[in-house]
Amino acid sequence: MRRSRGLTAALVLSLAGTGAGIGLVLMPEASAITPPVAFTADELPTWQPNGIVFAMDQANGTVFAGGTFSAVSPPVGAGSGTEQEAVNFVALDAATGNPTSCKLAFTVGEGTATVRALVVSKDKKTLYAGGYFGAVNGTPVSSVAAIDIETCTPKASFHPSFPATVRALAVTDDTLYAGGDFNTVEGQTRERFAAVDASSGALKPFVANADEPGRAIEISNDGKNVLLGGDFFSVNNANSHALAVVNATTGAVTKTYSNIPSNSVVKDISADETGYYTGNEGSGGGVFDGRIGLNLDFSEKWRDRCLGATQYVLPYDGVLYSSSHAHDCSTELEFPDGKRNFLLAQRTNHEGVAPAPVGGFVRGPRKLGWHPNANDGIGEGIGPRVMSVAQKGDVKYMWVGGEFTLINGEPQQGLTRFASTGDVGAPTTPVASAASVKPGEAQVRWRTSYDQDDSKLTYRIYRNGSGTPIATVNADSLEFERPQASWNDTTVKAGQAYTYRVTATDAAGNTSALSANVSVTIPTSVQAYPDKVRSDGAQLYWRYDDTVSPYVADSSNGGNTSGIQVNAPALRQSPGAVSGSSTAMGFNGTSQQVYSDHRQSVGSTYTIETWFKTNTTRGGKLIGFGNDTTSSSGSYDKHLYMTNTGRLIFGVYNGSTRTISTGLFDSYNDNKWHHVVGTQGPGGMTLYVDGQNKGTNSATNFTPYAGYWHVGGDNLGSWPTRPTSNYFAGQIDETAVYPTVLTQAQVKNHYDLAKAPTDTVSKVVAAEDTYINQGAPNAAYGTSTSLAVRGTSAYETYLRFTLPAAPSGQVLKAASLQFKTSSQAGAGTADTVSVVPVTGTWSGAGTTFNTKPTLGTTPLGSIAGVPDGSAIQNVELDTAAVSAVLGTSAGLGLTSTGTDPMWLWSSESTAADAAPQLILTFGPK
């Protein structure tokens, strides 16, 4: 039947600003609902039936729902209202979700009455109902009825006889088309499809006899043809399975279809001004469960082959909304087999040029950011079955009916609705990370958030606890695809520590919580190994320095391919494979792995690289490519794996398995760190271990497919010398993937650089602190949670640090004092604050203004003014002066000559990052 369309939502784009001095390109900020999606995913309170809703339509701000149920009740938590009788039908106010005064009971003498189809006439005056029933409010009918909408009464003069269930209806100005299980109408042969006069119910000469039940009808836009859908294999003796087009007057077949699998049927057909759409369901292997888009001439324009029993398709303002339980959209290069997605949205047409056909079909348009959640529910466990768009006032409402009993995790049976305004759901909290491999740059990166109705989110990055963002970035994400986003802070100084937090906001203003604080110390010299991996072009670089699950940060230069941990691998295993403080990840060899955050294809040239340490005798996959995520991949190659004896194998599949193995007596399960690299390109395949070439072959190609990178485990079925375990037990570090073939010299350089000297950072928290107050000369403040600095009248702060000696072979390269201003109003200062040595004796418990210690006269460093607001501040200190007191207990004083006080947290404070600390960076002599 014809769907509601043409109601345009007003959606406004704005621009995201950036912090002063930050070199970012301005990008369009997310609309309250990311266009072209027109509805939020936030469910509204709606009365609910005690059964299943199969049919729905709307008129004049009222939604009509039919199905198999006997009563409706208020939404959970409504606080008012009692259950009302509703015999297989209910009319509801589109805006409130409450029942109207229109009451209709669809009943039958024998069997179970049900309403399976509803359609409103073009003039919005008549509601037609189909199903299996013998009376409406006592008025005799035969599975089809016409209802006067204004009076809510059945039209007694309209009573065509349909002796079996009617499952589909469509109406023009003068004709009502029906499809279902019947073989006769009004005593005349009409097998599964028929047409009657829309006013009188008189049978029309339209004949489109099908051999199996009819389930869907749609009238062509020009009114000359009718599209039929169902279980059938022939119409009027013409072979056409599940879908056919017939003449609207005679029923003569005008187009047949033979490319829908025999075990699949058409459940729904809809239309908009650009074409027609089918929803399909199947059972068994090789089914077609998705959606088809047809051109106006009924030829196919695209086919979405997601698996998951599509029940209904509704085009609205350029978007095709659908109800299903889609669980595998691998063919669409989207999510692999897994959780069920019950409500989806995608454009009705591809943007720009459609992709080339794959397997004979053009993929469907990509899914959009609209993901209300439901469940299988009761009955057949289908979930949502039917949809309708209604409008009241300026607000449009997407209504959904079906078998579900939960919506977005909350109890709600059979009916729910979503509005075009009032987005109240906040995005999930970003998971952030930060790293630096060279002076003057910190890479802040985060796993993008998920918002049920906004695919474009605005991220704000906050540095050092400031309440003002230092940068703003926009990034796209979907429920099933949350890639990494990143931003480079180029205003950082070597030897200083910085903290970052990130929020996600949709344009309706809904903002996530702040991410957990992440910190990074900027090195004083380039960190040789990671810098080389980045400069050699890695587009995936996992260093495994992450502190929280499930995010694995990508440290590549712009690759933004993060990882997702599965079954909680062990974090921050030390020491890692390369020198410095970077850590590794531990895997249990039975279930733990990491997979990349989005589906991708691998180019014809590539390099895979990782480090590992193990003593396992069960082998396992180190790194590889596969077409699934948490489930075992069905396509899998481009991998490095270990045999039970500790040999290493690099393999690809190009119609057969092509592999390179290390020597028969080579074993790398000796509990030492080893470096392994596999390359493939025009010159064939090469395997390197610990910088040495271990073999080559001539395989220059592989069977292409889209998938995900896996580390720590995935399928190894049927591969040569398959180990006992698909999963690797041991530690893995420094995993990288390149879109090029690394040369032997580059590989050897990486291996050698792993032991290159790196900076060592020591963070020394104040062992004791206090301040003195000239206004209270005898008061001691050693237990205060705040410290103060002012020239007149005087506040002075004293900090004591137990300094380490320089590590062997290293010297101090940089030193800075880090403190955090307090949260009280005016905590910042316009004056210069100096850091000076404390040369006299003092204690937190006993020092007062009257007993204050002597201070040195030469400042070690200073900061010219501190802005208001609680934030971390860094003061660069004189390296030579600090070097002179390494290995001792040293005191620092904070002083000022002005009158504007500065307040900072002490080590007694419980505020985040409160304690003053020294950041000491040591490096090679």
Question: Layout of SSEs?
Answer:
Layout (H helix, E strand, L loop, with lengths): L13 E2 L12 E2 L18 E2 L2 E8 L2 E7 L2 E3 L10 E2 L3 E5 L12 E2 L6 E7 L5 E7 L2 E2 L2 E2 L3 E5 L4 E2 L11 E6 L3 E6 L3 E2 L2 E2 L3 E5 L16 E6 L5 E6 L3 E2 L2 E2 L3 E5 L5 E4 L7 E9 L2 E8 L8 E4 L5 E5 L7 E5 L2 E8 L14 E7 L36 E9 L2 E8 L3 E2 L2 E2 L3 E5 L11 E8 L2 E7 L8 E8 L7 E6 L7 E6 L7 E9 L12 E4 L6 H8 L4 E3 L8 E2 L10 E4 L3 E4 L10 E5 L4 E4 L9 E8 L6 E7 L9 E7 L5 E6 L3 E5 L12 E8 L2 E6 L2 E6 L10 E4 L17 E10 L5 H10 L6 E6 L2 E6 L12 E4 L5 E8 L7 E11 L8 E9 L23 E6 L5 E5 L2 H5 L5 E8 L5 E4 L11 E8 L1
Antiparallel strand pairs: 1-2, 3-6, 4-5, 5-8, 6-7, 9-12, 10-11, 11-14, 12-13, 14-15, 16-17, 17-20, 18-19, 21-22, 22-25, 23-24, 25-26, 27-28, 28-29, 29-30, 31-32, 32-33, 34-35, 35-38, 36-37, 39-40, 40-43, 41-42, 41-44, 44-45, 46-61, 47-48, 48-51, 49-50, 50-61, 51-60, 52-57, 52-61, 53-54, 53-60, ...
Describe the 3D structure.
- The structure is a single chain.
- With 925 residues, this protein is an all-beta fold.
- It contains 3 helices and 72 strands.
- Strands 46, 49, 50, 52, 57, 58, 59 and 61 form an 8-stranded antiparallel sheet that branches. Strands 47-48-51-60-53-54-55-56 form an 8-stranded antiparallel sheet, with no helix packed on it.
- Strand 36 and strand 37 form a beta hairpin.
Pick out its properties.
925 residues; mainly beta; eight-stranded antiparallel beta sheet; 3 helices; 72 strands; disordered N terminus
In short:
The chain has 925 residues and is mainly β. The relative contact order is 0.08.
